Amino acid sequence: MSFTLATWNINSVRLRKDLVLQLMAEEGPDVLCLQECKSPVDKIPHDVFAEAGYHHMVANGQKGYNGVAILSKLPIQEAGREDFAELGHARHIAGKLENGVTIHNFYVPAGGDVPDREVNVKFGQKLDYLTEMRDFFRANAPEKSILVGDLNIAPREDDVWDHKKLLNIVSHTPIEVEHLAQVQEAAGWIDITRKDIPEGLLYSWWSYRAKDWDAADKGRRLDHVWSTPDIANAGHSSRVLRHVRGWEKPSDHAPIFATFDL
């Protein structure tokens, strides 16, 4: 069985419903993982997505903030949800496909603007969230699993437009990169995107603040597709759909795709 998976921080699934439908029509991933849905589950327009062929959904939502959903052409059953750091936020949902693959969809806290937990509570919450992610996967060693989502960290030097300038900017600070590395090491997660695209600058997010985001190209790779080692060799054809960032009234994130032959 081969299936294509996409992950996309949609920045309001109701506001950008038509963009979701456009991606479904043009690219047709079998599984579409969304973050920052900003909607209670019962307000997600799943009936419209079902008409587009995505009859199955597992989701974790809340009013106005956060929220994650997995929309699927393939049957999928909820496989858990965790409230790491006890924030009371809808930031994780897991679903299991009929072929036994578990998909974890995450929206890691952004962490605010100041990379110091002593003066910025949000930064401390981000680090605590990552620590509990690490501990969870250490205690519950996953197999045949994929982890996707907006992890809000660009770990590599070539995941940002200027490594030195961003070392003290939240999303690329050494302490965040180390915390994310510990999450990755906890289950031996393989970065599928970088397995397929090992070299070169690669971004999935461009700020709304730039007058011309494309020309400035000051991006960061905040969105990720990982898998457990047992299925990593089955993952291929990774790509970032940069042009989607240029659609009308877009999210500030672009979707990332990967295909798995399982």
Main traits of this protein?
globular; Deoxyribonuclease I, Chain A; single chain; 14 strands; alpha+beta; 262 residues
What can you tell me about this protein's structure?
By secondary structure, the chain is of the alpha+beta class. It has a single domain (2-261), classed as Endonuclease/exonuclease/phosphatase (Deoxyribonuclease I, Chain A). Helices cover 24% and strands 26% of the residues. The chain has helices spanning 17-27, 46-51, 121-139, 174-187, 192-196, 213-216, 229-232, and strands at residues 2-9, 31-35, 56-60, 68-72, 76-80, 92-97, 102-107, 145-150, 190-191, 205-206, 219-220, 223-227, 235-240, 256-261. It has a 6-stranded mixed beta sheet. The longest helix has 19 residues, at 121-139. It is globular. It starts with a strand and ends with a strand.
- Measured as a percent range, the helix fraction is 10-25%
CATH superfamily: Endonuclease/exonuclease/phosphatase
Give the C-alpha Rg.
Answer: 17 Å
Strand order of the largest sheet: 3-4-2-1-14-13
Separation of termini?
5 Å
Report the strand count.
14
What is the approximate shape?
globular
CATH fold descriptor: Deoxyribonuclease I, Chain A
Indicate the structural class: alpha+beta
Mean pLDDT: 98
Number of helices: 7
Domains, number = 1
Low-pLDDT ranges: none
Major β-sheet annotation: 6 strands, mixed
- As a percent range, the share of strand residues is 25-35%
CATH top-level class? Alpha Beta
